């Protein structure tokens, strides 16, 4: 049985879409086993988006470059560099600020294949590329171009762990062991 960390980011909280988003996970049959409404400290934000995870930083840089190439925009002209790591570090600073703009609602979901399932429900990192029916496709329209131009993180409503390993790293940052509960949902009999 897998667990994953989901965070309703400040744009979801400020736009009053928490219930709408949570219900999408509930109706799939995914079990919420921990939840916290929390004002994130810079310390927690820094740990959640670790400076030493190069693949994560470069991944954000790559998304920027793909979006810029598609739009015919020169990254050096806009950001002063085309290095994915440098761009990733820049975005990480914006992300840390973004996560502290208002409280966030963090929760842990449990279920078979939950990491992959939740990523599917969330959609692509860039709302512009997220199909209708996904959270990011249905509730927002941001892109790297718009966000980078405004020197802020992409507002995409939700964080979801990207892999089982990421979930195992992230969950203990947000929840102590005794804040994670074990119980049975009625569907388990029918769907299990
Ligand atoms: P996720 O796992 O889909 O959330 O994507 P990542 O882990 O790659 O990035 C973390 C977060 O950084 C995203 O959810 C966005 O809020 C933000 N982000 C990612 N790529 C970019 C980008 O190209 N530009 C900006 N401004 N923000 C980005
Ligand atoms: Mg990620």
Can you describe what's shown?
Helix content is 51%, strand content 14%. The chain has 192 residues and is of the alpha+beta class. The protein has a domain at 2-52 and 98-173: Alpha-Beta Plaits. It has a four-stranded antiparallel β-sheet. The radius of gyration is 17 Å and the shape is globular. Bound molecules: guanosine-5'-diphosphate (GDP) and magnesium ion. Guanosine-5'-diphosphate binds at residues 56, 59-60, 63-64, 91, 94-95, 125, 144, 147-148, 153-154, 156, 159, 162.
Structural class category: alpha+beta
Describe the sheet with the most strands. Answer: 4 strands, antiparallel
Portion in helices: 40-55%
Strand portion: 5-15%
User: What Rg is obtained from the alpha carbons, in whole angstroms?
Assistant: 17 Å
Mean pLDDT: 96
Strands in their spatial order, largest beta sheet: 2-3-1-4
Instruction: Assign the CATH architecture of the domain at 2-52 and 98-173.
Output: 2-Layer Sandwich
């Amino acid at each position: 049985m897998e667990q994953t960390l989901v965070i309703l980011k400040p744009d979801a909280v400020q736009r009053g879409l928490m219930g709408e988003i949570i219900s999408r996970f509930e109706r799939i049959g995914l079990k919420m086993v921990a939840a916290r409404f929390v004002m994130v400290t810079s310390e927690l934000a820094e740990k959640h988006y670790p400076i030493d995870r190069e693949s994560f930083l470069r991944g954000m840089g790559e998304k920027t470059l793909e979006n810029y190439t598609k739009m015919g925009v020169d990254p050096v002209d806009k950001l002063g560099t085309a290095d994915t790591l440098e761009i990733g570090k820049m975005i990480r600073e914006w992300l840390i600020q973004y996560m502290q703009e208002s409280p966030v609602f963090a929760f842990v979901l449990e279920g078979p294949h939950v990491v992959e399932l939740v990523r599917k429900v969330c959609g692509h990192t860039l709302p512009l590329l997220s199909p209708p029916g996904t959270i990011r496709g249905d509730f927002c329209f941001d892109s790297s171009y718009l966000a980078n131009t405004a020197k802020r993180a992409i507002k995409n409503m939700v964080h979801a762990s990207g892999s089982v390993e990421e979930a195992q790293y992230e969950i203990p940052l947000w929840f102590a062991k005794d804040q994670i509960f074990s119980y049975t949902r009625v569907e388990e009999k029918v769907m299990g």
